């Protein structure tokens, strides 16, 4: 593994179903993030984690949950998917939660909720 | 409130110079980032400015004026591979990034 990986690459999901998007990084970064990207809008932060064992809410956390059991993994769960959650989801990481730290992004997961 | 504004789309000619502007309103400003995103791909880091002035990095330069809440990305000697979206993002008081919607740059031969 080099950098950040996400799985699946894409998924079509029926409304009401539960879904977990996976994210793994091998850079030993402390901070990790989940964003969604919708056409015409900027990236919006869903949840973030400063370090293993801690998580925080971003701008649009409703309907999503995260966990950070270890440094490398940061899964995002949709408990009961709704069509408005159709989006491209990016996982990102940085050395720490600090202003000057660039964020490295995974390749994204394209999710369609029908 | 917090807000980032940048043009939706720009067109430029191969070999030319283009300037992409960004204005921001961020509580507890902690710096301004520029990222490049090719269609269907992930954003990649281009630059970070926290002090006023121009930062040059090869063909790309980024400028910041904190007093005006203004930044620009300057791309010189444009190449076809520079066709992409350019995302402006400001870091707020919690070090979280507030993102603009991106500027789609179209390069014509």
How would you portray this structure in words?
The complex is a heterodimer of chains A (114) and B (109). Chain A is mainly beta and 114 residues long. Chain A has no helices and eleven strands. The model of chain A has no long low-confidence stretch (mean pLDDT 95). Chain B has 109 residues and is mainly β. Chain B is built from no helices and eleven strands. In chain B, strand 4 and strand 5 (44-49) form a beta hairpin. The chains are: A mainly beta (114), B mainly beta (109). Chain A binds chain B through residues 40-45, 48, 58, 90, 97-100, 102-108, and chain B through 4, 30-31, 33, 41-45, 48, 50, 87, 89, 91, 95-102.
Keywords for this entry:
heterodimer, A: mainly beta, 4-stranded antiparallel β-sheet, 11 strands, B: 109 residues, mainly beta, 5-stranded antiparallel β-sheet, 0% helix, globular
Q: What can be said about this structure in brief?
A:
By secondary structure, chain A is an all-beta fold.
Write the layout of secondary structure elements.
The complex is a heterodimer of chains A (114) and B (109).
Chain A: E1 4-7, E2 10-13, E3 19-25, E4 31-37, E5 44-49, E6 56-57, E7 64-66, E8 76-78, E9 87-94, E10 104-105, E11 109-113
Parallel strand pairs in A: 2-11
Antiparallel strand pairs in A: 1-3, 3-8, 4-5, 4-9, 5-6, 7-8, 9-10, 9-11
Chain B: E1 3-5, E2 9-13, E3 18-25, E4 32-37, E5 44-49, E6 53-57, E7 60-65, E8 70-75, E9 84-91, E10 97-99, E11 103-108
Parallel strand pairs in B: 2-11
Antiparallel strand pairs in B: 1-3, 3-8, 4-5, 4-9, 6-7, 7-8, 9-10, 9-11
């Amino acid at each position: 593994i080099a950098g950040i990986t996400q799985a699946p690459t894409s998924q079509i999901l029926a409304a009401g179903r539960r879904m977990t998007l996976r994210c793994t990084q091998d850079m030993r970064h402390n901070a990790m993030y989940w964003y969604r990207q919708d056409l015409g809008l900027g990236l919006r932060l869903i949840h973030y984690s400063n370090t293993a064992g801690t998580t925080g809410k971003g701008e649009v956390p409703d309907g999503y949950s995260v966990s950070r059991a270890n440094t490398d993994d940061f899964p995002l769960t949709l408990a009961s998917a709704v069509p408005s959650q159709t989006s491209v989801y990016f996982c990102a990481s940085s050395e720490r939660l600090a202003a000057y730290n660039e964020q490295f992004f995974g390749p994204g997961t394209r999710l369609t909720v029908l | 409130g917090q807000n980032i504004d940048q043009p939706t789309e720009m067109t430029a000619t191969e070999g030319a110079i283009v300037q992409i502007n960004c204005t921001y309103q961020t509580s507890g400003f902690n710096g301004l980032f520029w990222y490049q995103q090719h269609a269907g791909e992930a954003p990649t880091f281009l630059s970070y400015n926290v002090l006023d002035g121009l930062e040059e990095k090869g063909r790309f330069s980024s400028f910041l004026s904190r007093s005006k809440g203004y930044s620009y990305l300057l791309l010189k000697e444009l190449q076809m591979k520079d066709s992409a979206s350019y995302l402006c993002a400001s870091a707020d008081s919690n070090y979280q990034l507030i993102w603009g919607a991106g500027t789609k740059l179209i390069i014509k031969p």
